[in-house]
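During the no-cost extension, the postdoctoral fellow (Dr. R.K.) reprocessed legacy sequence entries with the updated structure-token encoder. One reprocessed record is reproduced below for audit purposes.
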Amino acid sequence: MAKFIQNFRQIWYGQDKSTSTTAWKAGTSSPRHMIAPPMSIKPSDPLAAYFLTAPGAVEIEKLHLQSPVLRALKESGVKLVVPMINQGQLVGILNLGPRMSEQDYSTDDRGLLNTLATQAAPAVRVAQLVREQHMLAREREHMEQELRVARLIQQTLLPKDLPVLPGWQLAAYYQPARAVGGDFYDFLSFEDGRLGIVIGDVTDKGIPAALLMATTRSILRSVAQSEASPGKVLEQTNNLLLPDMPAKMFVTCLYAILDPSTGRLRYANAGHDQPYHSHNGGASELFARGMPLGLMPNMSYEEKETTLALGESVLFYSDGLVEAHNPKHEMFGFPRLKALLEKQLGEKTIIDVLLNELAAFTGSDWEQEDDVTLVTLHRTGVMGSARLPHGLQANWMGNIPMEIPGEPSANGAYPVYLATSAAP
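Re-encoded structure tokens follow.
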């Protein structure tokens, strides 16, 4: 027995599916004497439940349970199993084959094995916890790397500055709910002076959303160069996206084309929030029907148009604004947004007003639930100035969050605010 204890090999039992339990023949360390193949015991296995109630060493041949592990142990020649229990949890088992002397295990043998299992169980559990911590650390490192890649993709593709349009003022604000968001916006300048405006929202977050955002942007930009109709652009983009669309993901997207010389705005909508047209002290939705991109093939997208007169504006936004909740679980909502757009703004910009109202509504302890993206188009007809909120300096035109002055949000990401205006 002393020789057996000297050469005894400790066997591991895991609560997770990836951990195997391996049995070695007592008295040897050679792998060729392995008597049980690597196996795992699921917590739902009746053998695991039996081991938790067993008083000590268990003779395998006397057990009759519907357990694949028990069957494997018998087939591999295991005679005696000693459960290792720590704080009511099965953390391992000691598997023993026939004694080399071919004698039965004595009462003293069983007592010594039970004592060994009792003393070894805490050490085994500590080792398991250490291993779990190492696995979690590797997972966190992997997730952090994924976020860095996704953030780089997003920072590279979002506009670094805004187009300059004589007689028009453009502004854009972007605040992700996490380090990487699913919202995006873009501007497409055409040779004839027209301007394409894109705003979208990709389901999901992280690398999948960032890659889908990049794919959608590239496809839409390519299609828009050869197709003048916003509805046709969305239709072709949808068909090109669909074959490689990840499961349970889609993209809402609004695409508009502005003729700066006339104020004519043509637009089509793929399931995105309806923009608001502010005019004559009122605000109305620019409604157009269409399914999100990537859900169904051969979809058609209704195309509408409106004309912006001097002093009129259009707000494009994502659902992170209207679906924000206050401490009372009330939603910011569309009626509140419409009422704000109908007010006289004075010297304030639309984005200024909305951000101030959002901050007052949600409170200082607000945990942002979704990305907030705002893009405004205002026909000034005269030289204007774009005032930046929250202490951002007017000379900043970048779009890389880590370079933006000011304080970051709770998620560690900085808001992006771009503004430009030009004379007629």
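Confidence is low (pLDDT under 50) at residues 1-35, 383-412. The longest strand covers residues 251-259. The remaining legacy entries will be reprocessed before the final report is submitted.
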